[in-house]
Specification:
Length: about 600
């Protein structure tokens, strides 16, 4: 059976020693009184909830799955899920990062993000029930009318009601301009919505009293394509003026998907037959509100893979220390045993360190993005708000795609450490692999994220945002460029930073002549950009570790951090050279292949 220990020490290192989040948060009026002790205490208790309440439900929930009553359309979640959710609500965890105006605790988003990392390590499928509610909450908080906010946000903040995002239809996935769901205006200002949605995570369940669906649909006179999409809030149960629940709305679960992973999350086929909803935002401007949800969800999906990477690493490391197999190539290490623990073998260490490095780099990126989001919406300086928003927009597709791709690499590597036992269900490793696989697909496939990064976020403003990140890299290089002890961490990012300018310009010029060139290079480009980001963060982590060691700190944590950084730069970062070479081969070898794909 797998185990899980919340990585609180590394979380504290990221927040307090590298990013110094308390100092940053004091520049934001609503967080002026926050302190490190409060943050640490909250996460310590959150780790207990994750490891003690929902982690024990992960394997059993996967085996049991959800069940649908086809007569009543009711979905029952696995044993223990509903009770765990009540504990979650009673503990105030749902309200952690929400607005105090609606009953939230108003804690920083970085705290909520690290709490959710632990939840994802413990049980991704369970975590998706409350997790999706945050996206719906943010959309209503940003674009909802005062009446909609008063009707829904208090209960969503408390967790008594959950939320979903209803985008995909059977005939269209990412291309939402093809959707057919219709919204007919009514005399009272509401809309009757009819259509079918698929792949709706947490779309129906028995854990909350009401489910608030945010639905994309078309008005009768809507223009074609994406410009004709509107956003509506459609509750499972109507809400009376006094806040009590009324009659059942015309929205229900028509079926549950049978899936490779996240089996204990109800991935629902949602049917709407004259379901009553109200519009969020302006007619035909639905993507504005939906992008609030989607960007929140994209960061959340990256966090899911981060959580799975961490828990897979922990279990693979423990197994490698215990499992004996063969002898070390450099001579017997465990003389009292018939064979050595497999952790003595170089390739086993490579697999373990790959997962460790991707977890620690991912944690830095997630925390950094959370702080950018905080500054974008709450900082007193308008320029800081603007710069933070631009940088976050560029980093969001990297956080989604790079972290989930890395999660795929890491969970598979950790399963490999177990050998044949990794393929067996009881050890839990194969579930981490299966659960992670969806993260590369939904909220826009990783190819879509790559096109968004290269086409819109980089080339769309002639590399201006990339240059802003380049200045961060440049500042670190200038600060540590003469420090010989930092050379092994600084030199690689300095070189790649310079290469990125030429690389981006070259792809952009080719793409101007033939847009397929951007499509052919985008996935490779995102991974190069991801490594530049991770390289920057690993250099900053190494910088802190070296300073602590120089000051006489004997905590082995800092030695471990340096060793992980050295591994990352030696074994993972060099992937960038191959990626830039393959990106430069162009689109012809892909598109001039009609005979091969006949």
């Amino acid at each position: 059976m797998p185990t899980y220990t919340p990585p609180l020490r590394d979380m504290q290192f990221v927040m307090h020693e590298v990013l110094k989040v308390v100092d940053e948060l004091k520049q934001i009026p609503q967080h002026a009184d926050i302190d490190a002790d409060t943050i640490n205490a909250v996460l310590e208790e959150g780790g207990k909830f994750a490891s003690e309440v929902i982690f024990p439900l992960n394997i059993s929930g996967d085996a049991e799955g959800c069940t649908l009553d086809t007569k009543t359309h009711a979905v029952t979640t696995p044993k223990g899920f509903k009770e765990a959710y009540k504990t979650y609500i009673d503990g105030g965890w749902a309200a952690l990062g929400c607005d105090p105006e609606f009953g939230g605790q108003g804690l920083p988003l970085v705290v909520n993000g690290m709490f959710y990392e632990m939840l994802n390590s413990a049980n991704q499928a369970w975590t998706m029930y409350p997790g999706l509610t945050h996206g719906a909450y943010h959309a209503l908080h940003t674009y909802g009318t005062p009446e909609q906010q008063q009707t829904y946000l208090h209960k969503m903040t408390s967790g008594e009601w959950t939320g979903t995002m209803c985008l995909t239809e059977p005939h269209c996935g990412t291309d939402l301009g093809l959707m057919r769901t219709k919204a007919e205006p009514q005399a009272d200002g509401t809309y009757k919505i009819t259509g079918n949605k698929i792949f709706i995570s947490a779309g129906e369940h028995d854990m909350a009293d009401n489910i608030i669906h945010l639905v994309l649909a078309r008005l009768p006179d809507a223009p074609p394509g994406i410009k004709g999409v509107s956003l509506f809030v459609v509750p499972k149960f109507h809400v009376n003026k006094d806040g009590s629940l009324g009659e059942r709305n015309g929205i229900y679960c028509g079926g549950l998907e049978h899936k490779m992973g996240i089996k204990s999350n109800a991935t629902a086929q949602i049917v709407m037959e004259d379901a009553i909803g109200t519009m969020i935002g302006q007619p035909n401007k639905g993507m504005q509100g939906m992008f609030v949800m989607m960007n929140s969800a994209r960061l959340g999906v990256g966090n899911q893979s981060l959580g799975l990477t961490e828990v897979a690493f922990q279990n693979a490391l423990a197994y490698a220390k215990d499992r004996i197999q063969m002898r070390s190539l450099t001579g017997t290490k465990a003389k009292d045993k018939p064979a050595d623990p497999i952790i003595v073998h170089p390739d086993v260490r490579k697999m373990l360190l790959t997962a460790k490095a991707y977890a620690e780099g991912g944690r830095m990126l997630q925390a950094y993005c959370a702080m950018l989001l905080e500054k974008e919406h709450g900082h007193a300086d308008e320029k800081v708000r603007k710069d933070s928003g631009e940088l976050l927009a560029m980093l969001t597709p990297i956080a989604k795609a790079f972290l989930t791709d890395n999660g795929h690499i890491a969970t598979n590597a950790c399963m490999q450490v177990f050998g044949g036992h990794g393929f067996i269900k009881e050890w839990g490793m194969e579930q981490f692999v299966r659960d992670n696989r969806i993260n590369m697909i939904y909220e826009g496939t990783n190819t879509i994220q790559s096109l968004d990064l290269l086409g819109r976020k980089i080339l769309g403003n002639n590399g201006a945002t990339l240059k802003k990140f380049g200045k961060l890299v440049g500042a670190l290089v200038a600060e540590e460029g003469v420090n010989e002890k930092m050379a092994e961490f600084i030199t690689p990012i300095a070189i790649l930073g310079e290469q990125m300018t030429k690389f981006t310009t070259e792809i952009g010029f080719k793409g101007f002549q033939n847009p397929d060139e951007v499509g052919a290079a985008a996935v490779d480009y995102l991974r190069v950009a991801g490594h530049l980001v991770f390289g920057y963060f690993f250099a900053r982590m190494a910088q802190v570790a070296l300073r602590e060691i120089a000051a006489g700190n004997t905590d082995p944590f800092y030695v471990a951090k340096l060793q992980t950084a050295r591994f990352y730069f030696s074994k993972l970062f060099p992937e960038t050279a191959t990626l830039m070479r393959t990106a430069r081969t162009g689109s012809k070898v892909l598109m001039d292949t009609d005979a091969a794909l006949a």
